[in-house]
Write the structure tokens for this entry.
Amino acid sequence: MDKPGFERMDSPDRTRSFWVLAAIGALVAAIGYGAAHTMESHGHVVTGMNNQIVWGLPHVFAIFMIVAASGVLNVASVGSVFGEPAYKPHAPLAGLVSLALLAGGLLVLMLDLGRPERVIVAATHYNFSSMFAWNVILYSGLTALVVVYLWTMFERRFNHLSRPAGLAVLVWRFVLTSGTGSIFGFLVARQAYQSALLAPLFIVLSLGWGLAVFLIAQAALHAWHARVVDAPVQRRMARLLGILVAAGLYFVAVHHLTNLYFARQGAFEAFILRDGGVHPLLFWAGYVLLGSAVPMALLLLPRFAGRGVLAASALVVLGAFAWLFVFIVGGQAFPLEIFPGHQVTSSFADGATAHYAPSLPEALLGLGGVAVAFLLTLVGAHVLDFMPREDLAATGH
Amino acid sequence: MTAATDKPESSSRRAWLGSAAGVAAAGLGGAMLAPGIRLVELAQAATPASTAGASPKVRWGLLIDTTKCAGGCTDCVSACNTENGLNGGTRATDAQWIRKVEIKQVRTGRSASLPVMCQHCAEPPCVDVCPTGASFKRADGIVLVDRHTCIGCRYCMMACPYKARSFVHEDLRDQKPDVPRGKGCVESCTLCVHRLDRGERTTACAEACTKAGHGAIVFGDLNDEASEIARRVREVSSTQLRADLSLDPGVRYHGI
Amino acid sequence: MRQWLLMLGLLASGLVSAADEPGRTPRPVIERAAQGAQCVAPAAEMRRNHMDLLKHQRDDTVRGGIRGAKYSLKDCIDCHASKTTGSVAKTQDNFCVACHSYAAVTIDCFECHSAKPRSVAQQGSK
């Protein structure tokens, strides 16, 4: 009979599947690196990004991963900081998934730079009025704090420190994710951004996206150990995900409704919500319907209780990608209003909506980042015990 | 080593070492005339070559008279491309430091034509958002990209309300020696800073427009009350683009 | 005992090869500067410090607008450009590339900077 909190790691089946999964992950990651190398040696001309759409598919992947990395720690916070005993055993896995997502997302961002060999310049030259400069410190700090937090949970004599460590992680990630939202919120130039609402919006979205990724990771880990997820805990987390998706939808609705009220934002909202081709399609069908309404039904309606949690989580992730694409690319596709009230034409696409077609290197780079996150989670879960730790709940820390 | 324990031959050894060092120093220093001064430096001091540098007393700016700007004329654009070594292409990935924009007011139907380039704001959003400080405002008001520090993140391109910046998407060859530019960095109009620094008093676009007889672009020091541009902005009405953003650009437009 | 002799032998051979025996160690082939009698600083000092001098100078130029100062890159190129290729970075024996390829230190200066002196570049440009 296995002791609670301790699992034998070295069964032959699991070892074999580990190497197969690791090989797949490494292959996708290697292809992603090859794509990044192509982008660096040939220049961004091989991508679909240009002088009108400067941030594209890699940024959609990267921002999803770093926002989810922050949000997944909520599972841990609910346990460690708010003292909810049902969540505490799951805190270590949340920490691992957070580190993995951070690594994957930041890797994609750094490899997409015009001069990736200059990250050392970014690490040594800081302009503190820039959110990006703050992010270099905030993201490295979060990584360090999560490592310490994991350590307090794994090292028995440090268990009593997991509460203050969890609190530090909570405060840090709130600052960090507000900062991620403010990357866009501080941009006065574009009608899609320039809003203080974006910081709390990103916080709420992070909680939903992080929990969705956690549920997927948790299900995968349990399947790998041939165990079943504890049903009451699964139901609680499913209900929480449903509420968080609703909260995210609320913030997005408030953002758009407020914009619709301003005459000067009318043309932009019409573009995003009705006339912009792929953007309204992704927004309504991708985010609102498939990414929010259907998951909410699956997670909150009594008739689906306990079923469809994984499907709902996957749909939330899909909806997140759809929303981010509309937010990042749609926000750039709409022309800048340099001459309000004028029809504008020029050789530089002034007054014209820009079109963006993602290219293969960009998609491969994004997927490569996901593969790195997968690989890190796989190796971490293979080397250490990230199954739910009943002993953590038992000790009351 | 104290003097009391010196062996007899140590003093001659020290003397030898001292003279050898002196000979070596003289050889290395290339004829030391006095501590710190060498022949080479004396020669250079005789012909001072370096320029004084940017002065905070100056604020460079442009006044563009759109009533003299003809639709379809691109003299300023061609001059800029030639001066800075741009290829003049208009693909979505080609750099454009200045472009002609044709505008037509929707309600009244009034048309105008004008060049748009980096507005060299006094409160540049691109400088605020640059993580490494590569995007910076020089003492004399010119907003530039230090391409040694630029990592190519394109955040400044997201932040610019005038879409002034371009990213270099591919390898470049045959750059102008006065205008280094390369793949992976962001760039924009420099107000021909390489010309200004060596004492020329105008930009390529303003010079070309004047030479062609249009006279739509005036360049000068906005802080110098006696300069032509300062006189003109006192006399005629002029606006800044997106003045509502309070960025205080150094480029002003008359006639829109 | 044999181990000590072996180590001694290795050390001695190392010292011998460190001595300046012609033909024993490959040296970079550096083309002499086409113009100018003397560099702005002695060769030994330049070899050791040119990267720091240039790095400091570039900030003075880009941020301060000071051009034509002692360590101006354009002035370096004016003197050191090859007589045959008209460049400091085109072929293996051109000034900058000669040492940098020998020492295997990649430089990205000439991804942006023209490697040709001003007079040559102006003739050849469109």
Notes: Chain A has a mean pLDDT of 93. Chain A touches chain B through 49 residues (CB under 8 Å). The first helix of chain A runs from residue 12 to 42.
